[in-house]
Amino acid sequence: NSGTSMACPHVSAVTALLKSVHPDWSPAMIKSAIVTTASVTDRFGMPIHAEAVPRKLADPFDFGGGHIDPERAVDPGLVYDVDAREYNKFFNCTLGYLDGCESYYLNLNLPSIAVPDLKDKVVLQRTVTNVGPAEATYHLVVEGPAGIDVFVEPSVINFTRSSSKSAKFMVRFTARQRVQGGYTFGSLTWSDGGTHSVRIPIAVRTVIQDFVADTS
């Protein structure tokens, strides 16, 4: 009834399409291409609504990256890749086998950013890999979550034929006021001003104390 049963075969088909076009891409690169090229508007160009009672504007917890766009996903420009060993480390963290996992959760190179417990400020890192033209310049566009200051360094990424195909960037989130709140949402987009617009969703929740439940 929710439609998720049909979402699975649709996404699986797009994954098969991307793998046939890019047989050397990792599963993480394929996932990134699908997420970062998705649309957050419907076929009429209007914001996506969640099928709730009452109806509400959808957020990343409803649609993830958005509506998939297979044509754009074939040529995403940049991807967020993850080595399979990093997933293994992440799994061991969830089981409590490793120490220092809080930082690792934030820095796993996923095509999304979630900060569930922002008390003051937090710094994390992402790496993008250029799978588009060898000569490219990407400029940053940030839509910050409400009540959160977002700083990204660098704000421009240049790729040349002689440079590395990967580039790291740092993201700092700072709470404007200390409140026990619900999640607020935003996005971080790298755009080359033409064909490629590489967008990842952001979800941040400010907290005062860990033991205070989120009732929003």
UniProtKB/TrEMBL annotation:
A single GO BP: proteolysis
PANTHER family reported for this sequence: PROPROTEIN CONVERTASE SUBTILISIN/KEXIN
Every Subtilisin-like protease fibronectin type-III domain range: 107-204
The organism's place on the tree of life at top rank: Eukaryota
Domain Peptidase S8/S53 span(s) in chain numbering: 2-41
Gene Ontology MF annotations: serine-type endopeptidase activity
Entry keyword annotation includes Signal: yes
InterPro entries: Peptidase_S8/S53_dom, Peptidase_S8/S53_dom_sf, Peptidase_S8_Ser-AS, SBT, Subtilisin-like_FN3
Protein name (record): Subtilisin-like protease fibronectin type-III domain-containing protein
Keywords linked to the UniProt accession: Hydrolase, Protease, Serine protease, Signal
Similarity comment: Belongs to the peptidase S8 family.
Presence of keyword Transferase: no
Pfam families, per the entry: fn3_6, Peptidase_S8
